[in-house]
Amino acid sequence: MTLRQKAAQVLLLGFEGTTLTSDTRLLLADSPPGGFLILARNVTGAAQLRALTAALQVAAAAAGPAAGLLLAVDQEGGAVQRVRDGVPTVPAARELGDDSTPAEAARLAAETADALLKLGVNMNLAPVADVVVERESFLYERTYSGDSKRVAAFVAGVTEAYSRAALITAVKHFPGHGSAAGDTHGQAVISETTRADFESIHLPPFRAAFAAGAEAVMMAHIIATAYDPDRPASLSNSVIEGLLRADLAFEGVVISDDLEMAAALDGSRAGTASVDTAGLGEASVSALEAGCDLLISTGPLARQRAMVDAIAGAAATGRLSLDRLDQAVLRVLELKLRHGIVAQGDAP
What we know:
- The termini are close together.
- This protein has a single domain (20-341), classed as TIM Barrel.
- The chain is globular.
- The longest helix is centred in the middle third of the chain and has 18 residues, at 148-165.
- The protein has helices at 3-9, 22-30, 46-61, 93-99, 102-118, 148-165, 195-202, 204-211, 237-247, 277-290, 301-317, 322-338, and strands spanning 11-13, 35-37, 70-73, 75-77, 80-81, 123-124, 168-174, 190-191, 216-219, 223-224, 253-256, 295-297.
- With 348 residues, it is α/β, with parallel strands linked by helices.
- The strands form three sheets. Strands 11-9-7-6-3-2-1-12 form an eight-stranded parallel sheet. Strands 4-5 form a two-stranded antiparallel sheet.
- Strand 4 and strand 5 (80-81) form a beta hairpin.
């Protein structure tokens, strides 16, 4: 793989259109990303989605080695279900947590996994493992409970069901967005939760997900001052390599939350309403330096190409270690290999 191909392989990108557009085809021919994030804007129905995912994989295959795509959705349940046709309707996590059982949630997860795989979707950015008590939180309906043990039971059941079906699970938002008030989509969010409370409340659901087979984890953009007082968790080596890798012994793929979100920026710029192109490139390099393996961007194509430029440029100048970039690429490719998304002979 060329340096630019490696830089693209660590990206999970949003895109435009409900069919394979010329822009997406050109992107796949030039710098095929690790995968695409399918949003509501890309879906009109089951048959359309099946045709779209097939067309994306065919176009990716024409690009050469290691170009099979991760095709991900946010299919949590409730309001966050990007696919509505051809899949079971799943209640919001809070409704399940209040009125159902982990076994029922697992049954719905198994049905969801089977349906998504038939539509060509191979990754779900779910379940949400955050523990949220406050009804005012934007995450309240998306979380199973304010009780850590109950959240862990539901997360474990859902993750195990996805894993049995061979749907890639990306549990979120590590180390626990529920530890802080505020929405990282539009502002910096600071968690002053202690390490003791992280250990007893917010980390157990993630431990349960990992034990149940989660192969990926999505990082929150919160600043968890107990581990790093300065940088969002998604950009923090202390959180990713220290807490997640060393303490929790997670060996899978680490995914950044959308780097288009305002809180992805560090320092004084974290409170800005949007990320400029230079800032997006800097956030991309910083996320990789911190230990992320797969970076999400739902922004326009020009900004996504700028991410590739920034990563490749940082690796070429030595600012980003080639070993770190190769490590991220290999984790992404190994995940694809395990799920038959890249043929064994295609791995570099």
